[in-house]
Amino acid sequence: MPITALTEKIYLCAFLASHPLMRISCKMWLIGATKQLFNTILTVFTTMRLTFNKYQGAGNDFIIIDNRDLSFDPANYDLINRLCDRRFGIGADGLILVSSSRGFDYEMKYYNADGKPGTMCGNGGRCVSHFALKQGIAGSKQRFLASDGEHEALVNGGTVSLKMGNVKEYRLVKENWFLDTGSPHYVVFDNNVEELDVYSEGKKLRWSDCFAPGGTNVNFVRTDKNGLFVRTFERGVEDETLACGTGVTASAIAATLTGQLVGNSIDIKTKGGNLNVKFEKSGEQFINVWLTGPATFVFEGFVEI
């Protein structure tokens, strides 16, 4: 019942309660109505309307929230999980909070679909860069902070290039490369990637003792003359996603380490779209690593939480 209508009825009942014959019944109704009014007011003041933007980068989709006013509680993992739920929430592979950060245009705080804080997300970083330009938070050339340190971004229309961190941690695990590209990735080369059960095979490797305790993301890669085709099982989502930015970066570098591809610019096809990874080899490190691809605004909306 609307607050105004409920209040009018309370006033009327209070008036009628002055009559001896109406006193008992009106008092009982007043007690119930007052409780209802209190609960209604409490709901109004404890419900927040949350404005969000939905983005996708090569099919990797995200909820992005401007949290520079600190109105969203980043420790509310259950809420983040609910918002990312594709049946009971907005639906996304992850959620990104944009916060203020001294010395940078902003800070990107990434959360996996399970609600927990995540490591670096490459496609998320490209999408948040587009969002920051659209919202007037930053220009087309940006510097922002993420979980793995500083990043640069260049926004050119619907295409965004993101400078990833240097890749210096990589090793062979059971004849396949395991790399840290801001997030841990295991890269498996397979000529039959299209037919592969990525969910089942990825889940087995994701929790392998080799990657304990945090586990790993798993990429299945096919090499051809035009570059790579990559499918990724993402931890935190616990399923295959249509694309993974840190995953295609790891796959491109692994293809170079195995000698399957030469050159420092690699085109990559995913189920959600096309990406490109550029890098330079400096000693044992890979530096000036850039991830480029589409970043698309899908819609803006609000939800009451």
Describe, in plain words, how this protein is organized in 3D.
Helices cover 27% and strands 38% of the residues. The chain is of the alpha+beta class and 305 residues long. The chain folds into 3 domains: 3-46, no CATH class; 49-133 and 297-304, Diaminopimelate Epimerase, Chain A, domain 1, CATH 3.10.310; 170-295, Diaminopimelate Epimerase, Chain A, domain 1 (Roll). Helix 1 runs antiparallel to helix 2 (23-46). The radius of gyration is 25 Å and the shape is globular. The two termini are 20 Å apart.
Write out key terms for the chains shown.
305 residues, alpha+beta, Diaminopimelate Epimerase, Chain A, domain 1, 3 domains, 17-stranded mixed β-sheet
What's the topology here?
Layout: H1 3-16, H2 23-46, E1 49-57, E2 60-66, H3 77-84, E3 94-99, E4 106-112, H4 122-134, E5 141-146, E6 149-156, E7 159-163, E8 170-173, E9 176-180, E10 184-189, H5 198-206, E11 217-224, E12 227-234, E13 239-241, H6 245-257, E14 265-270, E15 273-282, E16 285-294, E17 296-304
Parallel strand pairs: 2-3, 4-5, 10-11, 12-14
Antiparallel strand pairs: 1-2, 1-17, 3-4, 5-6, 6-7, 7-16, 8-9, 9-10, 11-12, 12-13, 14-15, 15-16
Helix pairs in contact: 1-2
